[in-house]
User: Fold this.
Amino acid sequence: MRSNSAKLGAVVVGVACAAALIAYYIASYLVVRPPAIASSGQAPRASITLQTVASIGFGPHPDWVSYLVKNPQGRWVHSTVLKVPAHSFVHMTILQYDTATGLRNPFWGEPQGIVGEAKVDGKPFRELNPDLASHTFAIPELGVSVPLKGVADNAKNQCSVAPCTLQQAHTTVTFTFKTGKRETLRWQCFVPCAAGFILGFGGPMQSLGYMDGLLHVT
Ligand SMILES: [Cu+2]
Assistant:
């Protein structure tokens, strides 16, 4: 028969292990931060290329919808942390490989806060039918919001796993916005695109690296 002190020792060790596991879980959740990817070009003109994909296909949440960013070497990186120069024009190219989910608020169907025209597949547009929106690229503090037209549900050769290639069905959305002072801003999508989450707004919609991002203006 084991002594009381041996039992107590086992309980203490068990509690310590559980506490260590919980601490590890919380710390790894908090410190996971996608790498910052710098824009191409020279101030005052920079450019960034993003893609959206219906499911990232790897990592801890392979079935989550996501953005990716092309690094200056031309490789796709799973990140939404962007670095752009201050007081510059940032030209965005977004390759949109996901189908439409639709906007709850048609107000977000109008490109806002940009310099010049937003174009989809080379054609300028003032307003996107809210039902056709797959995602938005929005930087609320700069008043920037651009809806991204989804791929048709019946399109051939759809991409299901990142990184998608130009041979697969996509729409290309381009626009330019202007940065101001040095600061770090949040950017995000406003389409409730998180399939499988309550109202479509959980999971990837509130996670850095997926539908939520940071813009370091440096
Ligand atoms: Cu989205």
